[in-house]
Amino acid sequence: MHKVKKPYPAQLLVILSLLVSLLYTELPVTCFAAGAGQTTSSAAFNETQRQQKEEGDRLTAEADAAKQKADELVLEGKLNRLNSDSADIQLFSQTVHLSMPRNTASYTFRIPNGTVLQDGCYLNLDMHISSTLLENRSSITIAVNGTNLDTKWILSVVKNQASWWKIPVPVSLLKTDGNYNTLTITTAQRSIEGDCADIDNPSNWVRFDPDSFLHLAIAQYAEPNLGNLYSYYFDNLDDGFSLKNEFILPSNPKTTDITYMLKAASAIGSSSRWKNLLDFKVSKSEPADPNIKNKIYLGILQNWSGNANLTLPGTLAENEGFLSVKGENALITGRDEAGLKKAVDFFSAPAYLNQIGGKSLTVKSAVSDISAGIKPNNSGYYTFQDFGYDDVNLAGAFHQTTTMNFTQPSDVSSGAASYVNIKFRHSKALMPDSSLLSVYINDTACGSVKLNSSNADSGNIKVRIPAEALKQETVSVKIDVYNYLGKIDCSKDWYDTAWTVINKDSELYFEPGSAGVTPTLLNFPSFPTFSADNTADVMVSTPDDSSPDNLTVMSLLSVRVGQKTGQAFDYSLCSSAAKITEEDKKKNMIFIGSNDKVSLPEEVSAALGVVPAQDGTFRIAKGLTLTAETLQNKIVFQVIRSPWNFYKKIYVITYDKGMEKNLQDFLSDSSRINKLSDGLSVVDARNHVTGYTIGADAGESQKKVPLSWERIKYLIEKYTGIPVWAAGLILVLILLCLYLLIQAKRNKKRFEQNAEKIRLSMEGNPRASEEPDESGHGASNGGPDQDSREEGTPSQLPSDADSPERTKKNAPAHFKDDHR
């Protein structure tokens, strides 16, 4: 919600004074002409019209200039458009363009809980139309929270009200409990006579400009408490599409003060993801920017004793934290470091904070991380619902479209077998020859299917994800349907007759890949949350982490991280590459610094396309059309995959000395950030962005997925086609069989040796009396003794005493008798 472009009292006074002066200059001439009884000629009348038109154009130009100047003052923080008894809420962040014969568009806004409204609220729409619209065939209806406010012929609105359409809004229709209000605009537009002749007609348009606004007459503003702090501070009536806050840290902030401030900033960003503009400052000891209303003091309690702007606690026990709000000043503190951490964690979890109705709270409990998201699985199979999507009803005749975005698991480039299987159902009234569902992946048409009776109750279309799309971190799936009913009255929407529903159990298959997606700046700054390693930790490295400018840059980055990921992150600080610990290497990282001071580890420098040196030179990768001269007065953004942790990212932001303020301005506007691309982008002093692709020779290539137990299980299942538990069972059985075979072979050999000994004993060989060697060693099992005998060594040759004849002589009598 943003204050908008509209005439102001000062501007109106200027216009009125000019009109009065114009009347006074015209009056004598008019009276003289009447007294003389002269008749105004046609030429004189035309001249008067021409002069009036010129004067009107001049006044319009002055009004436009005044409005533009007011906008500039607002952006500079020198003009506050929130009056004591009213507020104007900007409804559209960009121009709204409606071009179908029947259009419905909805927009939401919130009024902070506790606000008391009074009569005098109205909606002011800045509407422009195509001159081809038919007068009695084109209408517009405005509704708030499901209740129609007014319906008019579009041409009558433009002719009679000079583009601005003012619609009174009853106070009873607006929600003031902090819940969302919904404004609905419905148009019926016709430019050509005939049945549905305006389908895909570019001249059939109605436009609403961003200076359209909702005027609220306010009897009493909401009072802030901890439960509505986020909405009161960061979604209030005056700030619109901007997010404003000033952090005040102790005069000599500790490292923990800074890291806790960064976590709180990311929490603020995660709760206000749609805010485009940031006005964030970080100061020490006391506020430094009077144009920012919201102030958050953060630090251990002893730093704020005696501060009259704050609500302070009475007595805090050891390890206790404290939160309070007093008007536009909030306090996050604790008796000690442990207490401060509890307070920061509680503040950074709105699900807890929103339950507190009072203006202060002693925090004794350590809150748990409640951020929940989809986790990668081994199979690679997911549904649309896993990514937070519900059934999507594409209702209405003719073209209807929806787009869904899906992040690849763990930033790994999925395999070629990856696909999307869209399940749908549709109205049986659709004409099968012309009704169609088409699928686009990353804006590339990938497949289509007719909507006919065979798939009305349950249909599906399965399309492969193109290889090019699998090289990106996010896969965008656009579903376009053409709900055709034949010849119909196009002034009706036909929502109840023409519809196609995309089921939430539609499937995605991301075949587990072997190489990572090359990181880019397209979604800067964001870190993987849909990852095998989803720890929400970020290390920030900057040479001077305590200067207000550096702290402000870090806070802006942290807010943007929260906006991009929807999650609050824990932070740590490091001032130089030499101080990076093994624990730090497990985290995502951001390196920030001027070209002459930034400190980068060798492992990181090796993967960058541009590496500054303290002497003003640069190491520039081959193939980049950059030199030290072209990098003067520039900011360089780069991103790589962490050389220490495959699942983490590293951003490197370096800039020419004196570009600190430019960096702050750039990070404050998401429209500028969204222009960053490729692995390296260079930003000049005018915020012009140029992207460069870093080749593999620069050190950044598709790194292989590290081998883990999960990866091993997947590979087993992929190449054997059976579950890993079954493969393990089969392996155990194979090993058992091998063991049994070996044992059987050994037993067979022992049986043969024992039989041989029995035979020899029956023949009178004394060796037969030797016991078998059960251990499987020695003579009985082919041991050294047996080997020696086989080789016929002298020590093992039979002696005379061992000859058969001598054996017979020395044998007992009964043996001899039996033998004979």
Strand coverage percent: 25-35%
Low-confidence stretches: 1-16, 18-45, 69-83, 774-820
Largest sheet: 7 strands, antiparallel
Structural class: alpha+beta
Shape: globular
Kindly state the number of beta strands.
38
Rg from alpha-carbon coordinates: 40 Å
Distance between the termini: 122 Å
Helix content: 25-40%
Mean pLDDT: 80
Count of helix runs: 16
Would you give an account of this structure?
The relative contact order is 0.07. The termini are far apart. Helix content is 26%, strand content 26%. It is globular and about 135 Å long. The longest helix is centred in the C-terminal third of the chain and has 39 residues, at 724-762. α1 (9-36) packs antiparallel against α2 (42-75) and α5 packs parallel to α6. The protein is of the alpha+beta class and 820 residues long. Strands 1, 2, 4, 5, 8, 10 and 11 form a seven-stranded antiparallel β-sheet that branches. The chain has a seven-stranded mixed β-sheet with strand order 31-30-32-36-35-37-38. A six-stranded mixed β-sheet has the order 13-12-14-16-15-17.
Task: Name a few traits of the molecule.
26% helix; single chain; alpha+beta; disordered N terminus
What's the quick description here?
By secondary structure, the protein is of the alpha+beta class.
Please write out the topology.
Layout: H1 9-36, H2 42-75, E1 86-90, E2 96-98, E3 102-110, E4 116-117, E5 122-129, E6 139-144, E7 147-153, H3 154-161, E8 164-168, E9 180-188, E10 206-208, E11 213-220, H4 229-234, E12 242-249, H5 255-271, E13 277-284, E14 295-298, E15 321-326, E16 329-334, H6 337-347, H7 350-353, E17 360-363, E18 381-383, E19 392-395, E20 398-407, E21 412-413, E22 419-426, E23 436-441, E24 444-450, E25 459-464, E26 474-483, E27 499-502, E28 507-509, E29 515-516, E30 537-541, H8 548-565, E31 570-574, E32 588-594, H9 602-605, E33 610-612, E34 618-620, E35 635-641, E36 649-655, H10 660-667, H11 670-673, E37 680-683, E38 689-692, H12 709-720, H13 724-762, H14 784-791, H15 804-810, H16 813-819
Parallel strand pairs: 12-13, 12-14, 14-16, 30-31, 30-32, 32-36
Antiparallel strand pairs: 1-11, 2-10, 3-9, 4-11, 5-8, 5-10, 5-11, 6-7, 6-9, 15-16, 15-17, 18-28, 19-27, 20-26, 21-29, 22-25, 22-27, 22-28, 23-24, 23-26, 33-34, 35-36, 35-37, 37-38
Helix pairs in contact: 1-2, 5-6, 5-8, 8-10
